[in-house]
Design brief:
2 domains, alpha+beta, ATP-binding, aminoacyl-trna synthetase, five-stranded mixed sheet, BirA Bifunctional Protein, domain 2, nine-stranded mixed sheet, binds magnesium ion, ProRS_anticodon_short, binds adenosine-5'-triphosphate, 12 helices, Rossmann fold, 23 strands, protein biosynthesis
Length: about 400
């Protein structure tokens, strides 16, 4: 893509009403635009990042046998009444239509997915089953000042699993845990903690939160640097300096962003909604469930919170909107244009800053702000040497290399 064709423009200043680092940088770079507090449009560059994150999640979900579906965002009141959550879920957006019929905007989909499952699961032979979707969720969030970290409208991948017994449920739960760690690693996170947290209204047992350490985090966890013990501060009565219940090491405390959360549901939904199966002996039993949430839009915000500097965003390669940015500062020369064609033909995702009305300084500043992992500069000097200047966004040094080497490195 050519930058001269991109309809979004970078901003010198962040919008005054944005306080979070992720929203300030993403808005300045033209990745997102706020419509209202907690409600954002994803512009071309931002949409590409979101799609990349979703693609990673989709791939990993399919690997563990998840079957992808798409459920409605508009839910009739009756389905939420079946579990008693119409009255208890205070974050539900409720609406009335012209015929006075009441609806909720989907905040989560346990009721809807259980309704689907009860039509298809009859026998133990239909189990286990894992169904997921990637979809827009709506929640009446009180605090929506954290940009993509807390939207009133946001994207979620929600997976639901159905089992004949607790042993099978646990086995799959552990598989999903590992899958989440793979996803987060591919999204660029080197440091992820799996924290025990309250099971919420769902269960007496712990749920597990996937926590990314950063100062911008709204969560506080206690963790052990020696073993993998970690607990959300909200539920634990351990203090920093206390001993790790696993290994005795001194516990530490840190701020984190919760990017994923997985829950044991047991019979919480299957019992009230009549989701049963016949076991081998013909006995009717309630299906055992778990659910697993992960937020692509929150992940995008979290990546920006973790990977940035005073100049802009530093995208990890697998989620970057483009792999390479060509910055053309040589006047009246087609070297950059040719390189753009060659890189594209070789299969690289290239953004090409071909803008004629921008100074070299402005182009370099935008390159840093946009955060594309590799930058190639084409200048009079590099042309005279028959080379290209290559730089990694997250490193300081530059390197002069020839085209053959360049194509080999970037494709
Ligand atoms: P939090 O405690 O941060 O409010 P939650 O525990 O209510 O989140 P879950 O219901 O567990 O969230 O949702 C699963 C995942 O969906 C979260 O881990 C997060 O990645 C994402 N998510 C939840 N709420 C939001 C939101 N308001 N904006 C963006 N992403 C969200
Ligand atoms: Mg949660």
């Amino acid at each position: 893509m050519k930058l001269s064709q991109l309809f979004t423009k970078t901003l010198r200043e962040a919008p005054k009403d944005e306080v979070s680092v992720n929203a300030r940088l993403l808005a300045r770079a033209g990745f997102i635009q706020k419509l209202s507090s907690g409600v954002y449009s994803f512009l071309p560059l931002g949409f590409r990042v979101l799609r990349k994150i979703e693609a990673i999640i989709r791939e990993e979900m399919n690997k563990i046998g998840g079957q992808e579906i798409l459920m409605p965002a508009l839910h009739p009141k009756e389905i939420w009444e079946e579990t008693g959550r119409w009255d208890s879920a205070d974050y539900l957006y409720k609406i009335k239509d012209r015929q006075e019929k009441e609806w909720a905007l989907g905040a989560t989909h346990e009721e809807v997915v259980t309704d689907i499952a009860r039509r298809y699961i009859n026998s133990y032979k239909d189990l286990p089953l894992a169904i997921y979707q990637i979809q827009t969720k709506f929640r009446d969030e009180m605090r929506a000042k954290s940009g993509l970290l807390r939207g009133k409208e946001f994207s979620m991948k929600d997976l639901y699993s159905f089992h004949a017994d607790e042993e099978d449920r646990k086995k799959y739960y552990d598989k999903v845990k590992q899958s989440y760690l793979n996803i987060l690693k591919r999204c660029g996170f080197e440091d992820v903690r799996v924290a025990e947290a309250s099971g919420g209204s769902f269960s007496k047992e712990y749920s597990h939160e996937f926590q990314v350490p950063t100062e911008a985090g709204e969560d506080l966890i206690m963790f052990c640097a020696k073993c993998d013990f970690s607990q959300n501060k909200e539920i634990c009565d351990l203090r920093a300096g206390a001993q790790c219940p696993n290994c005795g090491e001194k516990l530490k405390e840190e701020k984190t962003i919760e990017v994923g959360n997985i829950f044991i549901l047991g019979k919480r939904y299957s019992e009230p909604m009549g989701l049963t199966f016949s076991d081998k002996n013909g006995n009717k039993k309630s299906v055992i469930m778990s659910c697993y949430g992960l937020g692509p839009s929150r992940l995008m915000g979290a990546i920006v919170e973790v990977y940035n500097d005073d100049k802009g965003i530093i995208w990890p390669e697998e989620v970057a909107p483009f792999k390479v940015l060509i910055v053309d500062v040589a006047e009246k020369n087609d070297t950059a244009e040719k390189l753009y064609q060659d890189l594209q033909e070789a299969g690289a995702e290239v953004l090409y800053d071909d803008r004629a009305d921008k100074s070299a300084g402005e182009k370099f500043a935008d390159a840093d702000l946009l955060g594309i992992p590799w930058r190639i500069v084409v200048s009079k000097k590099t042309i005279s040497e028959r080379k290209f200047e290559l730089k990694k966004r997250r490193e300081k040094g530059t390197k002069l290399i020839d085209k053959k080497e360049l194509l080999k490195k970037l494709t």
